[in-house]
Give the backbone structure.
Amino acid sequence: MKRTLFLLAAAAVFVASAEVKPWHTKSETTPNLRALVPAVPDASWTTNWWMGRHEAKMKEVRAGGAPIVFLGDSITHFWENSGRAVWDRYFASGRYRAINLGFSGDRTEHVLWRIAHGELDGYQAKAVVLMLGTNNSGHFPLDKETPEDTIVGMKAVIMAIREKQPQAKIVLCAIFPRGRDSNDACRRRNAAVNKELIKFIDGRNVFWVDFTDRFLTPDGFLPAGVMPDRLHPGAYGYEVWASEVLPYLDWALDPAPKGLMPNRFPAFIDKANFAAEGPDTVIPVSAFPNGNWWGTRCAEKCAEIAAHTNGFYDMVFVGDSITHRWERPGGGGEKVWAELLKTYSILNLGYGGDRTEHVLWRLENGELEGYKTKLFMLMIGTNNGGKAEPVAEGVKRCVATLRRKHPEAKVLLLPIFPRGATAKDHMRQRNDAVNKIIKGCADGKDVLWLDFNDRFLDKDGNMLPGLMFKDNLHPDHAGYLVWRDAVLPVFRQIVGK
């Protein structure tokens, strides 16, 4: 009873202070206590299987628990169903040796009951992956349970986890999209909840992971091939989920080297620091330890800068794999790169797989220090998912960071290269939309815009043969020749060679 009163009081304080602006127009809503009072499901459900699963999970807990905990509802539960192969490959054994505390149909109050009755007792987890809330939106009509109700319930769950497992990092996942499209009522309620859940992160104990865009087409459609019932992921969805949370789990298990995990807290306090639709594109985030090569390349590039004798580069190339492959063996651009180096001193800051947030992390963590240059060439954004506007905001932030840290240098801003075989490719269309926005960054003086994308395409917008690898994303040798020929006049003008 004492604990329940504590949760109620804390939730009341939260509700009074939070500026909750749900999508619906109801003027006054009172959070439903159902969402934050520990409870078991209805009697028939409990008798049939729910309590039996709880007892089975308690046996795992009493046997020593696990370093990694997945906590939630049926979407978590189904790691044992549609996600079984992915779970066995990544989480069932080895260093993760995870426990699945997902129960089909659970709402926040049911998870609170399970936490209160021992499922997080007697062991010390390193991380708790929490994805919960869709059943709070899906089991009752809006007038019986609003987004605010789900929010306070989630707040209570996070508080309970922190109380039981204070040493564990909480990886808070955005509630997955549901329904065919963005008009689905439950999808809209969950989106309203997600906007508030972001505020629970602190960059130290609670981290936010939102990869919902990876389940959707650009227009917000949720394919049955991704979620057969438009609620529970298929095997592909669980593969996506694993790939997104693994860097956080690796860091939780082995937090060295310190400082490489993203600290997003300051950016969320300063609301001016990100676009409303997609904050992750403009918040510096490291990709370590997403494959140890990324951290290794960071170290190598900082060492390369430190060893550079005169502290000056003619040019610095910044971007993702398309830039990386100028110098990467077998990448397509190495011969053209070797020719450029006969005339220019160039630092290549391209990293395969990078998105705008990864570039921003690197620019803020050493890769712009210790030298001066005349020109930065920037192309980034093709690896970002989601809508054009937040990706463009990330590109703009990269430009602003380069100008802030190197006011002596010009920035040559390139559009994202065309991708896909035809103009109908959805990522081509998204990138074209990004390009239309970021073109406005150029002032013709300090930031220069150079668009030569048409040189990769025929009159119908089809990719010209021989310029790209088979992925229709990365230039081949001939593609890098096109790139070189387009930018050389700017190099000669700015650098003077």
